[in-house]
Amino acid sequence: MGDIRRRGIVALGITALVAPLTVALGSTTAQAASCSAGTGPYQKKVEKFLGRPVDGRQSTADCKAIKAFQTKHSITPNAGYAGAVTWGVMDLMNKQKAAGSNPNKAGKCPVNKGRIACVDLTRQLSWIQDGKTLKYGPVPVRTGRNGYETRTGLKKVYWRDIDHVSSLYHVPMPYSQFFDGGQAFHSVGISVWAPPGSHGCVNMTKTVAKKYWSMLRNGDDVFVYGRKPGT
């Protein structure tokens, strides 16, 4: 009877040791499965953007790098797959970088208005200039998604509210500067590259929104032009 009891205790001890190991392995497998093993249609372009070896084949390291980028910029699903939405964000970043220090090279934003805030929906860029002189920017922004497009044309800042809270969506809109109905410059707590876009406002980082707040005043011109990708 004593031998049986001892064998039972040993068996229970082995089970207790094996069970946590099984749980741990199961957890690791589940985590690995959440990272896509598939090669996306934009694999090489995404690899190049992220500074990964450009071979067009999905590796575990590739997936982790893509997944981290997707998570940072609220791209869903964030499984590390090099798809159209992920490449679209990266391609936009490349075009924004190419603007350099001359965002108004094409002359689409008026230069005869004195101080003016320009918003290029196509490149998702904004800047402030005074006549032909660039005063601040360009900076990446997040404008209205499909169905909530930021309206184009020449407008003016008409109301400023540093601690505004949206009456429609009940979310904070710090450093709000309204220029067209309910559409305003304001800061957001997510990436300005997060798809699909805002509900019409021009979203900015807190640093940029604070700078715009310090530079603009009621009555200053705002010019919005172009078309946001995907709208």
Q: What structural class do the secondary elements suggest?
A: alpha+beta
Main sheet properties: 5 strands, mixed
N-to-C SSE series?
HHHHEEEEEEEEHE
**CATH fold type of the largest domain:** L,D-transpeptidase catalytic domain-like
Helix content: 25-40%
Question: What is the approximate shape?
Answer: globular
- The tally of domains stands at 2
CATH homologous superfamily of the largest domain?
L,D-transpeptidase catalytic domain-like
Placed side by side, the strands forming the largest sheet appear as 3-2-1-9-4
Low-confidence runs = 1-32
Radius of gyration, in Å, reads 25 Å
The CATH class of the largest domain is identified as Mainly Beta
The name of the CATH architecture of the largest domain is Beta Barrel
Termini Cα gap: 78 Å
Strand content: 15-25%
Report on this structure.
- By secondary structure, the protein is an alpha+beta fold.
- It folds into two domains: 2-95, no CATH class; 102-225, L,D-transpeptidase catalytic domain-like (Beta Barrel).
- Helix content is 34%, strand content 23%.
- The protein has a five-stranded mixed beta sheet with strand order 3-2-1-9-4, covered by helices on one side. A four-stranded mixed beta sheet has the order 5-6-7-8, with helices on one face.
- Mean pLDDT is 88; it is low at 1-32.
Would you spell out the secondary-structure blueprint of this structure?
Blueprint: H1 2-33, H2 43-50, H3 60-72, H4 84-98, E1 115-120, E2 125-130, E3 133-140, E4 153-156, E5 159-165, E6 172-180, E7 183-187, E8 202-204, H5 206-215, E9 221-225
Parallel strand pairs: 1-9, 7-8
Antiparallel strand pairs: 1-2, 2-3, 4-9, 5-6, 6-7
Signal peptide: 1-32
Protein name: L,D-TPase catalytic domain-containing protein
Keywords: Cell shape, Cell wall biogenesis/degradation, Peptidoglycan synthesis, Signal, Transferase
